[in-house]
Amino acid sequence: MSEASQLLVRRIKDGTVIDHIESGKALLVLTALAITGREGNVVTVALNVPSSKHGKKDIIKVENRYLETSETNKLALIAPRATINIIKDYKLVEKRKIQLPDSISGIFKCPNLKCITNSGEEIRSKIDVIDKEKLVLKCRYCARVISVDELVF
Ligand SMILES: [Zn+2]
């Protein structure tokens, strides 16, 4: 992290730092992780932080919560380049990349309005990743092939 970024975002004692989020995506990341602020712990969101690698980036620091791999992998379609840093007692104890899961349940809606998952019944969406390189997705219920741009929260 550059000196300027470090000054902008204070170090945390315990928790999770999501770094290198594509600029402008931090709020989507919070939505996907269901972090609302009502949990009571300190959450710091920094938007458009200068980054040596990608121009600008967003950073989220969630204090006193260690995000699980299963949670952070949900970010694969939103912030694929993000890195997850788990901090314990000011030390970096784990650094991981986000991996695209084989399927994603319940975060995105199927863009097909006639899909049973949009019918108002209590059916969670289930979207399979059929091509991880080209990011081709498919609804398990209606078999609609979905591109990342079509995903709706
Ligand atoms: Zn569908």
TrEMBL record:
Residues 104-150 form the Aspartate carbamoyltransferase regulatory subunit C-terminal domain. One of its GO terms (molecular function) is transferase activity. Residues 8-98 form the Aspartate carbamoyltransferase regulatory subunit N-terminal domain. Binds 1 zinc ion per subunit. The keyword Repeat does not apply. It comes from the Archaea. Its cofactor is Zn(2+). The keyword Metal-binding applies. One of its GO terms (cellular component) is aspartate carbamoyltransferase complex. Keywords: Metal-binding, Pyrimidine biosynthesis, Transferase, Zinc. Zn(2+) binds at residues 110, 115, 139, 142. GO terms for biological process: 'de novo' pyrimidine nucleobase biosynthetic process; pyrimidine nucleotide biosynthetic process. Involved in allosteric regulation of aspartate carbamoyltransferase. Contains catalytic and regulatory chains. NCBIfam families: ATCase_reg. Belongs to the PyrI family. This is Aspartate carbamoyltransferase regulatory chain. The gene is pyrI.
